[in-house]
Automatic annotation (TrEMBL):
UniProt-recorded name of the protein: LPS export ABC transporter permease LptG
Transmembrane segments: 12-34, 197-220, 240-265
Membrane disposition: Multi-pass membrane protein
InterPro entries: LptG/LptF_permease
Protein family according to the UniProt entry: Belongs to the LptF/LptG family.
Subcellular location(s) per record: Cell membrane
The keyword Transmembrane belongs to this UniProt entry's keyword annotation: yes
Swiss-Prot/TrEMBL keywords: Cell membrane, Membrane, Transmembrane, Transmembrane helix
Organism, scientific name: Vreelandella olivaria
Function: Part of the ABC transporter complex LptBFG involved in the translocation of lipopolysaccharide (LPS) from the inner membrane to the outer membrane.
Classification via Pfam families: LptF_LptG
Amino acid sequence: MSSLLCAPRAALARIVWGVMKPVLVVVVVVLLVAEYVSPRTEQYAEAWRLEKLQGEGAMLTSRSGWQIEGNSVYRFGAIRADDVVLDLTRYRFDDRQLVEATYAQRARWEDDAWRLENVATTRIYADHTESEQTASMGWDTSFTPTQLERLLRDIESQAPSELWAYAQFLEAQGLKNDQALLYFWQKMLMPLTMGSLVLIAASFVFGPLRTVAAGTRVFYGVVTGLSFKYVQDLLAPASTIFGFSPVWAVLVPTLACAGVGIYFLRRNG
């Protein structure tokens, strides 16, 4: 009797694995494209479009960004395709007191160093302020054009390796890196996520619902897919609020989906 029960389960496992293999191949190709192709082509396409509209050296992105380095807080207006930062503002603090504000019209990356142009500096004292105008001056910072480009570029379009490097950079600066890690784990765990969805789909075909009308199975499938998406969307901000690792925001619905699929498949066997 046990051998008779094992035979259908073995056949079912072969069918599910046969469906899973092409899905995993597609996912691996998607991961490779997301890592090596998509970020570069999107960046080049955006730079080409903006340069056609605005001319040579057009802005690579119009998104502004804030960053902390030591006792300074920076605001970056934009970075151009030729590694020129526009509208740079630096606020320097001493024991939480603002002591200096510096504005530069642009910053150029030359010979592995930054050079500020058209700089206006205001120093703040207890009883007065002093202003100074400078045509050009050096900028001593650990920021590189690559780091600033990641800061200003849409985080969703970054490659997994870029997201990981950006997350580590934010952590080194003492800043929250939950969002970068969330997108990183979503991309890296995509094979597991797709595999769990395949198991759910297989359970609708071969599981207890196989005798139910096709329309009912489609309805259950839509509800399951939406539930999976909504749980992931809810856990993403919850990881920031409650302080648990963003990897669980991706893993929990994925493992739950896989567990339900395996349960229904075994129930059929």
